[in-house]
Amino acid sequence: MKSLLLAGTIPDTSLDLICGAARLHGDSITIDGRIFPVNRGTAAMIGAVCSAAEFLGASAPDCVIGGDIGKRAGSREVYRHLIKFLPKAGADVLCLHYIIPEIGLHNQVLTAVRKMKTKPVMIADAGFMYVAKASGQASSYDLFLPDIGELAFLADEKASHPAYTRGFLTRLEIEPQELIRKSFEHGNAGAYLCVKGRIDYICKNGSIIQRIDEPVIEELEPIGGTGDTITGMAAALIANGMEIQAACAAACRANRIAGLLARPTPATQIHEIIAKIPDALDKVLCENSGACDCASFQGANSNAI
Amino acid sequence: MGFLKKLISSTNGDPPAEGSVDQGLLIFDSVNDVIQAEATLKRASFLDIKVVAPPPQYRTGCDLAIQFPIIERMGIVRELDNSKNPPRDIIHVNEELMRPTEICSAKDFGQYLMVRSANMKITVEKETKKIVNISGGGCSDVPYLAQQMIGQNLFTAASPREIGYTLCAYTLEIAFEEARRRLS
Q: What is the 8-class DSSP label of residue A294?
């Protein structure tokens, strides 16, 4: 098992910065004795990592978490901690998540990563993905996990934040290939992209290499945190030794199955999905073993290209 | 007028196109300051202002600025000074600046309506008007906004514009207003 470091922010104004191993307890996580609800964002990502790691028999992930409701102070604490400690850290996989984008501090984090003894697998989602793209340093990352709206942002060479994305969102679900190609050609994507949507696309160097489209659970789209759980499961699987493509495909498929098992409505909250991750991963890893006789979940699991 | 800052050309120094109105740009320290300034100026009937992306040399990755006709500079600066929210800088611009998207799409889930703007989504139970989910985004105030708004009535909840701080909040505001418009 490789060591996994998770970094991001949680909306807790009483918190400056907290570091330590995270554990999941029902609908909350604990880090260094502090309890945080798993509602969405980085807390949901950590919850999914913990759930997957426990299922895999892996150790609990290490976390660097700032308390931030959007006022930047907690985000800056996270950047500064990473800048200071990453050169001495031994993380094999780094998963960077919700944060206020600050290009200057982000670039210092990358400098710190380059000083690490061994370059970690670099995963970015949410604010860290935004600032990686805005800084022009996206190609320093191994994996981005955008949703379909964020993919349009990565493809727009002029946009510095998804709020400035040009173009019609209604077309995105139909023709993502062009946006994926543009993202990569403009240097605005990591080597791998895991595009989360009605169809999930796993991409490498600007080309779609795998689609995951079943089971279809329409109700997952409005639920806050369903993208964060894919990121968390992918990070946990990569830290467990799985290749990036396989980890993303398994995470996307497991997320759908967890959703199916939770019987969601658009009002479902993410901890109800996270509770189903062990069963979902069990099913997916069984399918992938080639010797699975589990009952089928709505047809084929994915389409490698 | 101590905060009146330098008036500079933001790009290549070319004069504005003939016939165009000279434009200035108000630079603030945070998106929330911009949101407040925009509200202040609109209340004071400065209607030709628009929120835009600042030019590259001012960008941090999550920021907005206010573009305005330079001819209105004195009045605008006075209004912001009176509201204790003066800009950090004022610059002259002669380029087309990007504006935040205002495109929304909606998806009907029967009992629920989901409205999306760029990377942000809000979902409301149609009958009760209760906000049941907020998703998308990547800035740190998104989980905070979800904490504050989920379970609240769409028409009495504090808006993202009032309690948010980032461009994600600004985008959620657009979806929030569209949801209100569709369910009113």
A: S
pTM of this structure: 0.90
* CATH code for the domain of A243: 3.40.1190.20
Q: CA-CA distances (angstroms) from residue B156 to A119, B73, B129, B162?
A: 50, 36, 10, 12
Instruction: Determine whether the interchain pair B135/A221 forms a contact, defined as Cβ–Cβ distance below 8 Å.
Output: yes
Which residues of B fall within a CB distance of 8 Å from A98? 138-140, 142-143
Rounded-to-integer distance, Cα A274 and Cα A26, Å: 9
Which residue, chain included where needed, has tokens 């040009």? A166
Nearest by CB to B61, from A70, A160, A165: name it.
A160
Closest CB from A127, A221, A266 relative to B138:
A127
What ipTM does this complex have?
Answer: 0.91
How far is it, in rounded angstroms, from Cα A144 to Cα A300?
25
With CA atoms as reference, the chain A residue closest to B173 would be: A163
Query: Per the structure, how many domains does chain A have?
Result: 1
pLDDT tens digits, chain B, 184 residues: what are they? 333 344 444 434 444 444 456 899 999 988 989 999 999 999 999 999 999 999 888 888 888 999 999 989 999 999 999 999 999 999 998 878 888 888 888 999 999 999 999 889 999 999 999 999 999 999 999 999 999 999 999 999 999 989 999 999 999 999 999 999 999 9
